[in-house]
Sequence to fold (334 residues):
Amino acid sequence: MKVKVGINGYGTIGKRVAYAITKQDDMTLIGVTKTKTDFEAYRAKELGIPVYAASEEFLPRFEKVGFEVAGTLEDLLQKVDVIVDATPGGMGAKNKPIYEKYGVKAVFQGGEKADVAEVSFVAQANYEKALGKSYVRVVSCNTTGLTRTLSAIQEYIDYVYAVMIRRAADPNDIKRGPINAIKPTVEVPSHHGPDVQTVIPINIETTAFVVPTTIMHVHSIMVELKKPITREDVIDIFENTTRVLLFEKEKGFDSTAQLIEFARDLHREWNNLYEIAVWKESINVKGNRLFYIQAVHQESDVVPENIDAIRAMFELADKWESIEKTNKSLGILK
Ligand code: NAD
Fold:
């Protein structure tokens, strides 16, 4: 029996998760919701995905242009076992009562507060905590990136200080900026550190800056070590950590631009780079401090986590079985 999945909010994250669901043999995509009849709605239809109006209030928009919908969100909820809520941040919490009304499990995204769900989730760090749960929050792109590498070296961590250099907007977003400034997040520490602590119990402080780029985030990470580790040990650990890849400046990976080009060269859909990219040369140990720099493809790193979250919630597989299955289905390199 395949788990029946619906997607509420077919935007940057929603359409990528929908695609990923279609690549699984233990899940089936029942439909997605749209608020309007933009090109994404027509594309979903072309792909044969049933499109539902996000609520009754949006129906006139579809009727006006003769776009036939399969029903509304409430109709979709009657056909699915789980809904992936990929609506804009904060809306998931507002939607939760309707999911509860229909007795449907829900996966929320990182724009929601942690208390929307029973567990905040990164597969390789705490898959087991989501087993059998009804409400799981896949944490944000930045938190997923930090958690993937930090959980791999968790036993060596005394304290983490990290600087988040954040992309201003996604490539399709013309409303956000800045386009010619660097904008510090003046709340110090930023919310990213506490968000990591919703997944793994480590000491961490973060600061954040928004910069004029659309393609990736970059993190500069410094770890005060609890016990000694060498640069070679860290390289070895990251080389053996799933969904983390080492890239070398020496091979032409000078910036986030070449990382995205690498994903394009792999013919990844939407140039998704699901893996966290660590610059190998940036890994350095000085005394009791470890330094490294990593990049996060914000539009896609959380996609495999949504798939694993569903498997955990329905107890379809154990941790490594699920991670390996997801990795294989999406062409994740390791
Ligand atoms: P988005 O704006 O690209 O997509 C949201 C979609 O929801 C849009 O298609 C919008 O039309 C639709 N929508 C709006 N109101 C709706 C409603 N009432 N009902 C149903 N759908 C509605 O946003 P996104 O970037 O995909 O973000 C979705 C969630 O994922 C947020 O919680 C966000 O914080 C999180 N997230 C985003 C990124 C990223 O970089 N884009 C990364 C990780 C996590």
